[in-house]
Amino acid sequence: MFHLSAVSYNVDLNLHGFLSVLPSTPSLSAACTTLGPFAVFLLIAIPSLVFLVVLLIPKHHVCKRTAELPLPSHKIWNVITEFGSYPRWRSTVTKVETNLPGHIPADGFEWFREFTPSGNTKYRVVDRWEGRMLKREIVREKGSHVNGSWFIEIEPIDKESTRITITEELTIYKVSMKLVGFYTGHNRNVDQFLTDLGNKFEQVVVLKDVGMTQQNKPELEKFNEKRNCKKMMR
Predict the structure, then answer these.
(1) Angle subtended at Cα 124 by Cα 120 and Cα 125, rounded to the nearest 5 degrees
(2) How far apart are CA 191 and CA 145, in angstroms?
(3) pLDDT of residue 162
(4) In what order do the strands lie in the sheet with 146-158?
(5) CA atoms within 13 A on the CB side of 231
(6) What's the confidence (pLDDT) of residue 41?
(7) Could you tell me if 77 and 153 are in contact, meaning their C-beta atoms sit under 8 angstroms apart?
(8) Residue 152's beta-bridge partner residues?
(9) CA distance 215 to 121
(10) Which regions of the chain are under pLDDT 70?
(11) What are the distances in angstroms from CA 224 to CA 15, 37, 115, 132, 231?
């Protein structure tokens, strides 16, 4: 039979063992003695549990969000590809640096760097289908703890309305950033981008999760075919 007295005896033994290996700090040892076995157990167990939960948060994630705007597709395309103007309408971007006009970087990819209150990130445009699709990747630099990409699709619904879909793929290497992403939601940056885009045109956007549909599969296949041809030509 299981007895609570046996549990209490074991906890007391564990407490004495724990106190014996503590550094010779009178205040710490006295605090542990005053708090009692159960309180000491909580002091050890809770941080350990939190650390375990953070470790179990996946470092890879994918989110796909979409919104519709009552605007022609070329207007939306021009805004999202004019990287230097991002600080004018994006609420989290304070400054943007871009490669010099007409200058081709060593790797052949157009790039831009976004500055926010929390730091800055460099991106390069790795694929571009004019007016329809854009893919940008994070340039992982020294001290960077995130890697990934945004795949932006522009789909005309009719002459005066457009659907924009963003697929974000991220790999987060820093434990603390995994915890922040888990708490705030991994789709936060995409949602903020689409909300800011709507605000620029004085439109309220309705954000939705989206999966691959038969309607956008042909367009994606065309894009992938074009991308493969570009890679073969390099």
Answers:
(1) 135
(2) 21
(3) 97
(4) 95-98, 110-116, 119-129, 133-138, 146-158, 161-172, 60-69, 208-209
(5) 8
(6) 65
(7) no
(8) 134, 166
(9) 33
(10) 1-36, 38-41, 47-58, 102, 173-186, 211-234
(11) 62, 62, 31, 13, 11
